Every structure is written in C-alpha cells, then in structure tokens.
Amino acid sequence: MPMAQLKALARGRAWAFSDFELKDTVGKGTFSRVRVVKIKGASDRTPIALKILRKGDVIRLKQVEHVKAEKQIMSMIEHPFIVNLLGAFQDDKRLFMMLEYVNGGELFSYLRREGRLPNDHVRFYSGEIVLVFGYLHNLHIIYRDLKPENVLLDSDGHVKLTDFGFAKVVEERTWTLCGTPEYLAPEVIQSKGHGKGVDWWALGILLFEMLAGYPPFYDENPFGIYNKVLQGRVDFPRHFDMKAKDLVKKLLTPDRTKRIGCLKPGVDDIKKHKWYKGTDWDLLMARGIQKAQRHRHHQFRRRSKRAFRNSTPPSMPKKRKQRADQTKLRLLYCFLSIEPCLRLCFFGSFGQISRLD
C-alpha cells in the first residue's frame, strides 16, 4: 500500500492493541520492542511495524524526553529514505508507534557479512543518506545517531533511516551529549555546543566504515575512542578510493566551521564532490536509481575469512561485535529527570489515559 494510503488508514480511526494480528518480533531494546503486525479484518494486509514502549520503564530510565522527541519529530517528517511514522496510540501501560515496515534488514548486518562494501554500493547508500540529512537540516532537525544499525534497507535495497530518539530541532547549537562513541564529533565530546555538523561528521565515519570494514576511531573503551577522535588521525587502508578519501577527510575535519556540509553552500558542497560525480540527485530522490545488486536480508553473501581479515585493523577484534543498547545506557545522564506533571502532559499527547503506571 502506498505511504499516503497507509497514513490515511492509520489516522482515520482510534486504535487499540487488540486491532492487530501479531507476527514476528523484529527488534528489542531496553524499554521497547518492535512487532510486525497486520490490521485485523483489513482488505489490504500490508504489514506494519508496531513499536511498543513500556511506560514504567520509560519513566524509570528517564527516557521521557527521548521518547517525546522521537514521536514529535517523526510526526513532522516524511521522506522516502526514512522509516515513516503512521500513527500513535496508548493504553494504561504502554505507548505504541505505528511505523512503516522495512523488510530488507540492517546495513550493519550487510556490512558484517560482506566485510567491506563496493564503491558503487557505498556511493548509493551514502547518497540517499545525504538526501535525508539535507531534508532534515532544512527543517532545522539534527539526527545525531547515524550508525549502521540505524540504517535499514528495504526490499529494493534503498536506505530507510530509523530511530529518531536522539533527533532534535536546533536553530543554532545544543550541548546535550548523546550518540554512539565511534560516531561522536569532537565538538560533542568537548561540550563546545554542536549543530548540523555532527551529522556530516557521522557520515564521514560511516563512509569510512563501509569502505574499510571498520570504523576509523576504535578502542575497547569509549574513553579510548574519544581520545582518538580528538587526536584526529585517520589511517586509510591501501585499497581506499582516492575520491572517497578526499571526501572522508573533509567530513572528518575537526573544526566544524571548515567541515564540508557546514559551509555556506551546505549540502550542495557534498553533492558536488567528485566522489558523487555523475550522480543524478533528482533521480536518486525519486528512487529511480537501483543499487547494483538487489538483496534481501537472508541473501547476503559471506566474504571469505581471509577477505574479512584483510579489511580489519590489528587493534580490532576479528569478529566485530554489535554496538548494543548499552551504548545509549552509558549516555543516559544526558537526559533530565521529568517531573510527574510533565509526564502526564507527555503521555496525554498519545491520547487520554486514566493512569500512568
């Protein structure tokens, strides 16, 4: 079903959890899980992703502002390369977010299986992310949580950015420390205040990781990662494309006032970079460009152990570990405790309720 029809269906009635036929669990976090569901009795059986959040855990972990920001910002946006919000509702114990279902898996899984990705695949994925960031930044929204785990792929191989819990509307700068250690920009670590430039820094990290098979700043300890980020030394593997290397260097410029994407031309500077030469941005936006090889999550090819070993730096484990929810838990102190009256105000935005927990 087209997105416009899905949204019209979702917003055309009051929903209850009992309205859905439950299918597989496709995601699980500290205080939420995501279930694939279908609407009971609907003529169209298009699957929907239902994000279920437990109110008690949201309050206990001081994540009210986190969840509030995610719901508010996702209500503001709609883009072909974002997991779009269809609607939201609640009951006494839980909050529910109805989301577009994306069935191609995570970029993280693809990258882990392949070791590193071909240049044309990286250009394709990163180009679609550039379009998302250009769209968000035009609305003064910074995303702040780019990483392979948050880049989903649809059945045609197109990008779908998910998890807007750290996103924020920012006119100039904000000082909140949040994100994933390997992807944090220097200005975030140094508490200098940050803005849209943190997304372009994170794009540079992701570009490097897709092309090299590992992040440019790595350590077993988050503080070791921070030290390496502040030192700013990036060691490129020999196979690294020279045009991509130039773009990564410009994205990983420590001085945010000189970082590509942060200058007067904004996103156009990145679109015109030689790495993207020949890219038809309008056609890409219209989903008219297909990745070189379509894939589904279960069809990813495994590279040989030798190929993966050759793409891994000596200081990094051969079997790359997934950055789990502990990353966000380490940064929970960035969120303030919310008073009960504000909790009521927030939960009320999902619909009337009789109690909070």
UniProtKB/TrEMBL annotation:
Transmembrane segments: none annotated. It comes from the Eukaryota. Residues 294-308 have a biased composition (Basic residues). Signal peptide: none annotated. One of its GO terms (molecular function) is cAMP-dependent protein kinase activity. The keyword Nucleotide-binding applies. One of its GO terms (cellular component) is cytosol. InterPro entries: Kinase-like_dom_sf (IPR011009), Prot_kinase_dom (IPR000719), Protein_kinase_ATP_BS (IPR017441), Ser/Thr_kinase_AS (IPR008271). One of its GO terms (biological process) is anatomical structure morphogenesis. Residues 294-324 are annotated as: Disordered. Belongs to the protein kinase superfamily. This is Protein kinase domain-containing protein. It comes from Effrenium voratum. The lineage of its organism: Eukaryota, Sar, Alveolata, Dinophyceae, Suessiales.
